[in-house]
């Protein structure tokens, strides 16, 4: 909001419009949250719809999780708390990828290519990077909690995971922004090649998260686009070989972009 007001007050209407446009995809997560409330048997009233319209629906879900955690007294309640916590983590990750990531790319481009001394865009880009990294950490933490015999990771491990995600995302975003600064729209060609390669790689892995063929192809295409920036494990079991392939391809892309 501060970035939108900053561009509006300074008369930079082009960047103002693009920043506002980055907010719109976040409503996908809000709509999905409403549908999940209905699927859980909770009819969303006017107050709940207003919260989602203001993009505060996920905060309402966080509040419900905290309230249920305080009241949980049995293993069945703990299981329900875990599932609701998982819903929030998935929705938060979806919102971060659809809304925070485009905003991060836009503000990083403004800071690197147009206004290096821009305080508001710089702070906004930094907070967006941390927000996206934290969403990925929360999702990874939730997937660990689902494993049988899991152990809750200590705070030091979560901090290391946050630093790893932040560094990985930061280098990818910086490489794309620098490439866009030098070669303008050619960055879409580079990102498109990476997206196609990763999408075909996911198809070759035969992920079975989505059963329907059309939705399965769409899922692979969407995750392939996410793999331009970060790795998300979408298959059960050990993932060290898949992570090695991802980093081998990603590191070459970053080196090529930086060299160019």
From TrEMBL:
Belongs to the XK family. It is a multi-pass membrane protein. Pfam families: XK-related. It is found in: Cell membrane; Membrane. InterPro entries: XK-rel, XK-related_scramblase. This is XK-related protein. The chain crosses the membrane at residues 15-37, 119-142, 154-179, 185-204, 216-234. Its main location: membrane. It comes from the Eukaryota. Keywords: Cell membrane, Membrane, Transmembrane, Transmembrane helix. GO terms for cellular component: plasma membrane.
